[in-house]
């Protein structure tokens, strides 16, 4: 009799227990604190980005190709061919996209590659850098460093299956005399994005992220009001519209760097810092945009790249992109 009673209680209690357990699990799932730390898998994947890789990309741009600017249009063509070959199906395996246009009768082009998203395919996280250099310079920091970071990311992301799409853009005419004009690659690409219909969740412009000198920074009096006065530091800069993206990006990147990560919403009286950069065209188009710049880029001189620090910065940014593309 006692055994029969126990069996009946077990049969009645089992489904009740399952219902209660399921309900408690759901309550915990939907009310658990949001995880503040970056998933370890993302930092582990980014660890594959090496000093040697970024150094090799910088060398190919600055030593093999050399000067790359509007006054030497053939060198821009050589650079675009190098990028397409490196990214293409015979190397990193991408289908490289092109945006062709003419500047003063000379053909030029933007390039980009995409890692397609899954459930949220039409939502896109974009990282761009300009592949030309200032006239009279091989542009080691400005901006072979940004392009080297993009190429390293392309290699690192090659087998990725993110939830949102990730896009890496290699832009032309990002220096004088065409920066900030309708001839800039950023201006043309921003127009293309505006017509495309994708939902741009975040857009990062890498500009001089390979040189981080110690000591006082060569800043104007105005810039000293919102930038650190001494390096090394990496700055994440935005306008008011992109402030939420700025805060989230800083929280993810800062813990991954061995040197200072700095963030600033640029005041109205200093907007030239943003508008006179590749980021300006994308901010004008209304996209959530950050300018990412190392303190060595705030002076007039083009400084040599430190491969170790560039690789560290690239790993941190790659981790950030993965976090954004896998919410």
Uncertain ranges: 22-30
Principal-axis shape: globular
**String of helices and strands:** HHHHEEEHEHEEEEHEHHEH
Count of strand segments:
10
Kindly provide the radius of gyration, computed on alpha-carbon positions and rounded to a whole number of angstroms.
24 Å
What oligomeric state do the depicted chains represent? Answer: single chain
CATH topology: Aminopeptidase
Measure the end-to-end span: 56 Å
Overall pLDDT: 91
The helix content is 40-55%
Strand order of the largest sheet: 1-2-4-3-5-10-8-9
CATH superfamily: Zn peptidases
The description of the largest β-sheet is: 8 strands, mixed
DSSP strand (E) fraction?
Answer: 15-25%
Total count of domains: 1
Count of separate DSSP helical elements? 10
CATH architecture: 3-Layer(aba) Sandwich
Write up this protein.
- By secondary structure, the chain is α/β, with parallel strands linked by helices.
- The protein has a single domain, classed as Zn peptidases (Aminopeptidase, 3-Layer(aba) Sandwich), CATH 3.40.630.10.
- Helices cover 42% and strands 20% of the residues.
- It has ten helices and ten strands.
- The strands form two sheets. An eight-stranded mixed beta sheet has the order 1-2-4-3-5-10-8-9, sandwiched between helices.
- Helix 7 (243-253) links the parallel strand 8 and strand 9.
- Mean pLDDT is 91; it is low at 22-30.
